Amino acid sequence: MEVIDVMNESRLFKIVYYLLSKGHAAAPELAREFEVSVRTIYRDIDALSNAGIPVYAETGRNGGIYLLDNYVLDHALLSDQEKQELLSSLQSLSVLDHVYEKEMMTKLSALFQIQSDNWFEVDFSRWGRKTKDNARFEKLKDAVVNHETVSIVYAGASGMRSKREINPLKLLYKAKEWYVKAYCTEKEDFRIFKLNRMIELEPTGRRFIPVPFPDCEDAQNFSYNKIILRFPKNMAYRVYDEFDPGEIEEQEDGTLIAAAEMPEDDWLTGYLLSFGAQVDVVEPAYLREVISNEAKKIFEKNKP
C-alpha cells in the first residue's frame, strides 16, 4: 500500500511521535530537531497529510504544526522490523513477572498481527534467588522512575556494612552485574552501587529532584591496568565465561592466556583467588606477591 510505503520514511514517523509527545511544534523547531531545512519539514507535513495523518498548520502568534486532538498512532506507522523489536523489548522485561507487561505484549501482538513465539528469555537473577532479586530490582526501578529516595544497608568492598540513603538515578547492567547510579546523601557525592551488595533496601517515601549523573566511565575512579593471566586447558569453560574471545589466546600446549584491563583493588585480589591454584599471574609481576600473601593469610586462618 502507498500509505505504508510513505510511513516507512523514518523521519515522518519521528515527526508524528514528536507531535504526539509535545502537542504541537513550530516548523523551525522541527527543522532543528531533525537537522533538515524548514522547507523539508513542510514537505514532510504535506506527505503526512496526504497519507491520511490528521496533521495541520496554524499561522499567527500561537501558530505551529498540530495533530488533531485525540489522534491515536496507527500501528501501520511501524515497519515489521520495528514491531518485532518492540515486542522483543517487552518480552525481555518478562524477568520482572509483571502481568501488565505480559498483557501489553499480548495486546500489541494482536494489534500488529504478529505471533509472539517467545523465542528468548531474559533472567538477571541469581540461581535460587529469582523472587528476592526481582523484588529488589522492581523496588529500585520504581524508585528511579518516581524519583524516590531509598534507604539501603550496603556491603562495601572492604566487607564493612553501612547504612545509607541514596537518590537512585539510573539502573546499569555491565559486566554481567546490575548496578545503580545514584547520589549518596551521606557522602554528598555520586556513587555506583552493586545491587547484589545491597543487604537491605527500602523506599523512604520521600521524593528528590533528579540531577544528571556525571559523564564518566565510572564514579569510583578505579585505576585500570593490563592484567595477563595463564590458565590450564581444563579451565577453558570459565575463561570463556569471564573474558572476551578477543582477550584470549590459546597456546600450543592447550593453556590459555587471557589479557584484559582490570581495576587493581581488593576486588581483583578476591577475583583471582576465586580461581584457586588454576591461575598463574603473568603480569604485573608484583601482583603475584599480593595474591601469594593473601593466600597465606587464608591458609593460616583456616588451617586444621
Automatic annotation (TrEMBL):
Domain of life according to the entry: Bacteria
GO molecular function, one term: DNA binding
Keyword Transcription: yes
InterPro entries given in the database record: CBASS_pafABC_assoc_protein, DeoR_HTH, HTH_11, PafC-like, WCX_dom, WH-like_DNA-bd_sf, WH_DNA-bd_sf, WYL_dom
Keywords tagged on the record: DNA-binding, Transcription, Transcription regulation
SUPFAM superfamilies assigned to the protein according to its UniProt record, in alphabetical order: Winged helix' DNA-binding domain (SSF46785)
Residue ranges annotated for the HTH deoR-type domain, each copy included: 8-67
Pfam families: HTH_11, WCX, WYL
PANTHER family on file: PROTEIN PAFC, PTHR34580
Name of the molecule in the record: Putative DNA-binding transcriptional regulator YafY
UniProt source species: Faecalicatena orotica
